[in-house]
Design goal:
Length: 416
């Protein structure tokens, strides 16, 4: 039997630490640690060749005390209950930290979208939505994109839900295409937030963004945009990776040209403006900030002691294991936790949901200015809590969020 902690074990350990800091009871811990609703669904799909494959889908609503569930849908081969549980719990804390009127949820289907055609992915998505109809809704649980899903997936999601209820319901998902009621600024919101928090963390250490060096792991929806915002702001993005490999340029990569190369070839490797590097070395580069923005558990007890950056900004959810985190803290590396660093996505999802329900749409300036001022305010609150309680930024962010959720529980009372 493996003794390696699962992502859910790590998430519960963060909650335990918040319990120590805030001093609430074991009963309250049990209430907060236990997901409110867990659903598994079979997703049978007819393949293009006429055969059938049955996939496993999940949706977990961790907590509803502050509002409907909110969280992404992930399409990846290794999606399982433990991972979805952990991610749903993180969503509860993320929404509460941002003071949004949501609880936390997460979902996914265990399959590799690269091995399926677009038509098959559409059928998979529509069947998954159909199976979830009894437990989702704009007042119940509002999905969004995550790894392996995008605005197109959300459009199919919204259409299937709308067909079932008999009218168009844009409030059922966020991260929709702008043409279907999506928000301007949503597609790049997570990346913008990663840039804003990276800049704030560097400034906190007295490092000016101009010329600061950064390495970004992952060049998908989060990593690609983050690298672009950083490059535009004058930071030097010296290394970038994806699932196929990594590239390096000590003078800074032209991220716009790299994005063009990835659009053409699907990979960062073989980009003419940089040299190949060992992807395992990317997070260990001697740079000002490293930004893991791909998958979880990439900073662990095996490599954390070799991190040379002053700052780690968690663009991905759960990129640092509990053991890795302890080592980074010991070394004095400033870790900007996922629930703060990548919260721009859920924040602008909230703006999108408000716009969908109001049928009144904001311009990009309003979206991005609102996002920046909200995230900087939360950054300031987290730094203050950390200073006052002598804890690190993750402990501060999780504790602040947990306190709000617990308060909501207490005020609502326990239904017999
Ligand atoms: P995505 O599918 O768009 O991109 C993932 C990227 O990571 C791809 O470039 C892929 O090649 C790369 N990758 C995969 N495995 C890798 C590996 N082992 N090493 C290096 N690169 C690897 O996914 P995304 O939406 O960018 O999500 C990335 C992370 O950010 C996830 O943890 C997700 O939960 C989190 N996140 C996403 C959003 C959002 O709005 N999309 C919001 C908050 C958090």
């Amino acid at each position: 039997m493996s003794t390696t902690p699962t992502p859910y074990d790590d998430a519960k350990a963060q909650l335990k630490r918040a319990q120590e800091i805030l001093g609430f009871s074991d009963d309250d811990y049990a209430l907060l640690a236990t997901p409110r609703r867990e659903v598994t669904v079979a997703v049978p799909v007819q393949r293009d060749d006429g055969t059938m494959t049955v996939l496993q889908g999940y949706r977990i609503q961790h907590n509803w005390s502050r509002g409907p569930g909110k969280g992404g849908v992930r399409y990846a081969e290794n999606v399982d209950m433990e991972e979805v549980r952990a991610l749903a719990m993180l969503m509860t804390w993320k929404a509460a930290l941002l003071n949004l009127p949501y609880g936390g949820a997460k979902g996914g289907i265990a399959f590799n979208p690269a091995e399926y055609s677009q038509a098959e992915i559409e059928r998979i998505t529509r069947r998954y939505v159909h199976e979830l109809l009894p437990v989702i809704g704009p007042e119940v649980d509002i999905p969004a994109p995550d790894m392996g899903t995008d605005a197109q997936t959300m459009a199919w999601f919204m259409d299937t839900y709308s067909q079932a209820v008999g009218y168009t319901e844009p409030g059922i998902v966020t991260g929709k295409p702008v043409s279907l009621g999506g928000s301007l600024g949503r597609a790049e919101a997570t990346s913008l937030g990663v840039y804003i928090t990276t800049r704030a963390a560097l400034e906190h250490l007295g490092i000016h963004e101009e010329g600061a060096t950064v390495a970004v792991q992952g060049f998908g929806k989060v990593g690609r945009g983050a690298a672009r915002f950083m490059d535009d702001a004058g930071m030097k993005v010296v290394a970038v990776s994806d699932v196929f490999g990594a590239v390096y340029n000590a003078d800074g990569i032209d991220t716009k040209a790299l994005a063009g190369h990835v659009d053409e070839t699907g990979k960062v490797v073989d980009f003419a403006g940089a040299q190949a590097m060992d992807p395992a070395e990317l997070l260990l580069l001697d740079v000002d900030a490293v930004v893991p923005a791909a998958v979880e558990a990439v900073l662990t007890e095996k490599n954390a002691s070799d991190v040379k950056a002053r700052v780690v900004v968690e663009g991905a959810n759960g990129p640092t294991t509990g053991a890795g985190d302890a080592i980074l803290n010991e070394k004095g590396v400033l870790v900007v936790p996922d629930i703060l660093a990548n919260s721009g996505g859920v924040l602008v999802s909230y703006y999108e949901w408000v716009q969908s329900r109001d049928n009144f749409f904001w311009d990009l300036e309003r979206v991005q200015e609102s996002q920046e001022s909200a995230m900087l305010a939360v950054w300031g609150d987290v730094v203050k809590f950390a200073d006052e309680h002598g804890v690190n930024l993750r402990e501060a962010a999780v504790s602040m969020a947990v306190e709000r959720v617990l308060d909501a529980h207490k005020m609502r009372g326990l239904f017999p």
